[in-house]
Amino acid sequence: MELGKPNLEAFADTLIALGQQDRDLLVVTSDSRGSGKLAPFAQTLPDQIVEVGIAEQNLVGISAGLAAAGKKVFAVSPACFLTARSLEQIKNDVAYSDQPVRLVGISAGVSYGALGSTHHSLHDFAALRAIHNLAIVAPADNFETQAAITAAYHAGRPVYLRFGKKPMPHLHAEGTPFEIGRAIPLATGSDVTLIATGETVAPALQASQILGMQGVSAGVLSMHTIKPLDTAALLDVAQRSKAVITVEEHSVYGGLGEACAAVLIQHGIRTAFKIVAIPDEYTVTGSQAEIFAHYGITPEGLASTARHCSNSS
């Protein structure tokens, strides 16, 4: 796979292009222009960025007020703080007030790595899925990032977008359609299908290639939107595969896996099912790569899990 740039850089580049066309586009940050790769945006469009300092609750409240005044607002802050410190403001000022703020959680999952559990964002899907009127999107690569930001800009509704830090491989062919709420198939398989989101899509696709060389037919679905979930795509792969495995950089509780499990149970689908995520324990400290390896979120680890699931189904 050809390596691209970090999704955060693709996000920032897309914002510059959109902001140059629309003076009503504003970026509001909580001392995050550096970590959010927004310095070029600030240099290019200095009148379209608002810095509130380390005050995440104010960040969301101010963003909601600007949106109510007709501005196209992207509120940018580390995901761990944005979705914990500002949860009440996200709920009341944005979602329940129906203000079309684009909430951008940066350095999500375990991207902050060695900074430890205080800086991990393993709760955001769970917390935000319970809030009505809020879409949740975790792009997998630069293409999905650019498309998701553009779609969120045009959506006119509250959206949470989640980004990690590392350079991501290009996963999609040019011209691939993108729609919030519509998953993208990357490979088809009859033995097992891996449904992944965000930065776990790349290792899932690499795992499917390993499995293919071992005689296991493995599909991959990029479920970039956690809410609204693409239930049609989920049911389709579950009925065509002997096993389904979900993969996410999130707690095993309340994220992609449990969302998919609920759909399958309610539709009476009895396909073998496995959630690969961060378990309920004291999370190890290390780089993102080290944490992924520890919990089996690697091409080899996912291939091993898939072989076991497909053999036991």
Short key terms for the protein model shown above:
2 domains, alpha/beta, Rossmann fold, 7-stranded mixed sheet, 21% strand, single chain, 5-stranded mixed sheet, 313 residues, 12 helices
Low-pLDDT residue spans:
none
| Domain count | 2
Second-tier CATH architecture of the largest domain: 3-Layer(aba) Sandwich
Estimate the helix proportion, in percent: 25-40%
CATH class of the largest domain: Alpha Beta
The largest pleated sheet is described as:
7 strands, mixed
Tally of strands: 14
CATH superfamily of the largest domain: Thiamin diphosphate (ThDP)-binding fold, Pyr/PP domains
**Widest beta sheet: strand line-up:** 3-2-4-5-7-6-12
Euclidean distance between termini CA atoms: 31 Å
> What is the averaged pLDDT score?
96
Secondary-structure-derived class: alpha/beta
Q: Looking at CATH, which topology of the largest domain would you report?
A: Rossmann fold
